[in-house]
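Researcher: Let's run the pair from yesterday's discussion. Sequence first, then tokens, for each.
Model: Starting with the first of the pair.
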Amino acid sequence: MDVAPNWYLALSAVLFTIGTFGVLFRRNAIVVLMSVELMLNAVNLTLVTFSQSMGDPSGQLLVFFSIAVAAAEAAVGLAIVIAIFRSKVTVDITEINLFKH
């Protein structure tokens, strides 16, 4: 059974929309980071879909590097959140102000 690329693109749009709403409306820093990762994975799904439908593997290679960068971004982001949590004892992004002592 072959699935049309339109279904993958629709799924990618839904995932990106969920990630956007997560970034805009959630206040927990961990949830915001997970929403950014969801948005990156939605873009990766779109790249793989177009790469597969056009028969060019360069999109899949770009996804490989994008996943590597996303993993590094998640590690650095989580380290920053842990450092802020240790000093402020909160992960609520509305209560964090690094410029105020």
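Model: Moving on to the second of the pair.
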Amino acid sequence: MNMLPTLKDGNDFNEPGFWHKLSRFAATAGKDVVKNALWLYYAAQRPDTPAWAKATVYGALTYFILPIDTVPDVIPLSGYSDDIGILAVAVATIAGYIDSDVKAEAAKTLHRWFGH
């Protein structure tokens, strides 16, 4: 049985793929990209986050982990520009569900990966 959230278009959010890409490319992508991705992820884990907001989150995070990008992630300096834009729009869209608990959980992960 598939325990991953299903998006309206039938694609599944790949949680292991998300954690793999995020941890592997955290330093390259930068702290702001990682922070936004974590805010989205932890906001989607909240039971009171509505389905439309979770669909927004999982759509943005699925785009983030896709191996095929509009701007390939391996291009220096601009490789994550499309990811940054997608994540920023998703954060703005669901900002009401990114509370202090979500930010604290993300901060713990950021601290493990980036230190201070």
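Researcher: Give me one sentence on the second I can quote.
Model: The radius of gyration is 13 Å.
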